[in-house]
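Predict the structure of DinB family protein.
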Amino acid sequence: MSHITPPAATEYAPYYGTYVRLVTGDPLAALQAQPAELRHLLTGLTEEQGQFRYAPGKWSIKEMLVHMIDTERIFAYRALRIARGDTTPLPGFEQDDYVPASEADARSLTSILHEYDTVRAATLSLLESLSEAQLSRQGTASGQPVSVRAMNFIIAGHEAHHLHILQERYLPLLAA
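Done. Here is the predicted structure for DinB family protein.
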């Protein structure tokens, strides 16, 4: 698969525009580069620091990482269903219910990062296999239209969003 062109604004719900705009080039290249960026940001992080929250009521670093994994799985599943021509409307999910149920803080960073790598490899394998016709297919997720092309950008942009939060809100306070 060659470079994936950006989706039109009609190919995704306005809410996802933030994620789509965070991907300035090929989303597959971004997805391939993000694991190294994440590893770089987490270098030297202790298990205790993995439970750090930058403010009361916010997710810990471990919870944010598992949220990223869960969301990528769900978004890739949506891309698969729509790419295969399934027109069944796909339900949304409540991230604020998933995070505490994940029990992320009880897990090791090593375990979480292993799962992250596994999910990312599966996501890339799927997305790299898609034809232009499959990328152009549209379906419904969370009551909104979405194309497979847009899902590529949304997956990469969602992670870019959380990497930015890690850099801007978590890591400066840990370094202080």
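The chain has a mean pLDDT of 97.
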